[in-house]
Amino acid sequence: MATREDIKFLSNPKIGQLRSKYCRFRKYNIRYIDYKDEDFLMQFVNEQGKILPRRITGNSLKYQRKIATAVKRARHLAILPYVTDLLK
């Protein structure tokens, strides 16, 4: 018989495991989200330039709204692009 180490998985075997999500703003006591900080806002935007949802980032509703507002302001001032092919 083949052992578990000999078997090559087509997908990640840790997919079904749950990991605890947390709001990084509440954990690190971040009160203000700066819309001019491009590197920080890039963590909440995917490769196409779309804002990542709460279920993926783990943010609370209050801070997810603030992130969405900050990203939209940064887009309006051309700090972040509206649409792109490969952002990261």
List keywords for this structure.
32% helix, 4 helices, 88 residues, 30s Ribosomal Protein S18
Describe it for me?
This protein has 88 residues and is mainly alpha-helical. The chain has a domain at 24-76: Ribosomal protein S18 (30s Ribosomal Protein S18, Irregular). It is 32% helix and 0% strand. It is built from four helices and no strands. The protein has helices spanning 24-27, 38-41, 54-57, 61-76. The model has no long low-confidence stretch (mean pLDDT 86).
Secondary structure layout:
Blueprint: H1 24-27, H2 38-41, H3 54-57, H4 61-76
The structure class reads: mainly alpha
Radius of gyration: 18 Å
- The helix/strand series, from N terminus to C terminus, equals HHHH
* Alpha carbon gap, first and last residue: 44 Å
> Overall mean pLDDT score?
86
User: Can you tell me the overall shape?
Assistant: elongated
- Poorly predicted regions are none
Q: How many H/I helices?
A: 4
How do you describe this structure in short?
This protein is mostly helical and 88 residues long. The chain has four helices and no strands.
